[in-house]
Amino acid sequence: MFTRFCPFPTLLAGFVAVLVGYASSAAIIWQAAAAAGANASQIAGWMTALGLAMGISTLALTLWKKAPILTAWSTPGAALLVGGLQGATLNEAVGIFIFANALIVLCGVTGLFARLMKLIPHSLAAAMLAGILLRFGLQAFSSLQNHLVLSGSMLVAWLLCKAFAPRYAVVAALVVGSLAAWMSGEVQRNTLSFALVAPEFISPHFSPALLLSVGVPFFLVTMASQNAPGFATLQASGYHIPASPLIVFTGGLALLFAPFGVYSVCIAAITAAICQSPDAHPQAAQRWRAAAAAGVFYLLAGLFGGSITALMASLPTAWIEMLAGLALLGTLSGSLYQALQQANERDAAMVTFLVTASGLTLAGVGSAFWGLILGGASYAVLSQVRRA
Asked: What is the number of domains present in the chain?
């Protein structure tokens, strides 16, 4: 009976989607939470809350629309938070989450989502994202210097799988790296645990400087690099669903659970494509079942959020850095391609990219914001000169 409702390939598609989601970004979320000063128990609570939020939202939207709508946390947003939350408190981090998700809900309610994205040239948004992600790529390959066997084995596994089964390349790197770390004795086995960890409520504190330097770029990155591709993936797969109701729902859910560490709930793109493919189900009208299965797996992963966090804490830093770098490599290369694609926008995009990647801080405001400001000014000046 169950196999008729959810055939094994459909069930497997849902499982792989969740596995890829965690494999590609759990390490980055762990880094973001640690940057804000969260301890192991609090990070475990974040992972529990995020898993439950993804499960609830995926199931609700999929069953509501009868379409394979997966949700995801914003991986590029988490990457931005790794640097942006350095020196911030957990209370200030929650204030950023609430601020950014309130802006997302506002976009959905007013229908400004599409129009707001048009205010910033796509090349500059892509350049800003590439500047944010650059440090992850550099960290990944610099880890080869002191952890050649561990990081090298992960790179080889990723490369081979990328050639023959690209969908599972990050998963292969995760598995091989975990085995290499275990066999070399680099896994701190005494930190492993399998206890259920309840999310901890953290009251928000709103710092104007952080809201401007981190909150605004985080909002823009989440909308431009997670929600926009998510809707594009849906449409490319033949599912034409109005954007505003989904933006309001996901933004509202993230806003509600922000004090528990749910920094974002977005429309998924990469993991959603797994459940939207013919491999999930030969009939497009039945592929929502794969997304529903993914929702259930997300709920299960949420219940064991403490175990996932304990596993991350037990693994060497080089493992986390290499996994994060490989997982973000496609996003980084795609962002650079989009940033430099238009010859007449290339100079402004490079200004945005370099300023963002520099780590510049002025008046307490971080480099992502200044990258957009200086890149936007360059774009405006150069466009005006070329029209003259």
From this structure: 1
Q: What is the pLDDT of residues 175-193, one digit of tens each?
A: 899 899 888 887 776 655 6
Distance between CA atoms of residues 28 and 46, nearest Å: 13
Distance CA 285, CA 56 (A): 21
pLDDT tens digits, one per residue of 281-334: 888 899 999 999 999 999 988 887 667 666 666 778 788 788 878 877 877 888
* Segments in the chain forming alpha helices (H): 2-5, 8-35, 40-65, 75-84, 90-110, 113-119, 122-142, 148-164, 169-183, 208-210, 216-222, 228-236, 243-257, 270-275, 288-303, 305-314, 317-340, 346-358, 367-387
Residue 169: CB atoms within 10 A of its CB come to 24
Select the more confidently predicted residue: 16 or 94. 94
**Alpha carbon 271 to chain centroid, angstroms:** 11
Confirm whether 32 is domain-assigned: yes
Q: Average pLDDT of 9-28?
A: 79
| Mean pLDDT value of segment 217-235 | 82
Residue 97 is assigned to a structural domain of this protein:
yes
Domain assignment present for residue 29? The answer is: yes
The DSSP-derived string for 294-313 is HHHHHHHHHHTHHHHHHHHH
Q: What confidence score (pLDDT) does residue 137 get?
A: 86
Q: How many CB atoms lie within 10 A of CB 384?
A: 9
Spatial separation of the C-alpha atoms in residues 302 and 289, rounded to whole Å: 20
For 232, the domain range is: 2-333
Phi first, then psi, for residue 266 (nearest 5°) are -130, 170
Residues 6+ apart with CB under 8 A from 279: 9, 13
Residue type, 4: R
The angle at the Cα of 305, spanning 301 to 6, to the nearest 5 degrees, equals: 5
d(CA 30, CA 78): 9
Query: Is the pLDDT reported for residue 202 higher than 90?
Result: yes
* Choice among 23-32, 67-76, 85-94, 103-112 with the minimum mean pLDDT: 23-32
Which residue in 52, 44, 72, 47 sits closest to 250, CA to CA? Answer: 72
For residue 321, tell me if it sits in a domain. yes
Residue 22: exposed, middle, or buried by beta-carbon count in 10 A (0-12, 13-18, 19+)? buried
**24-36: average pLDDT:** 83
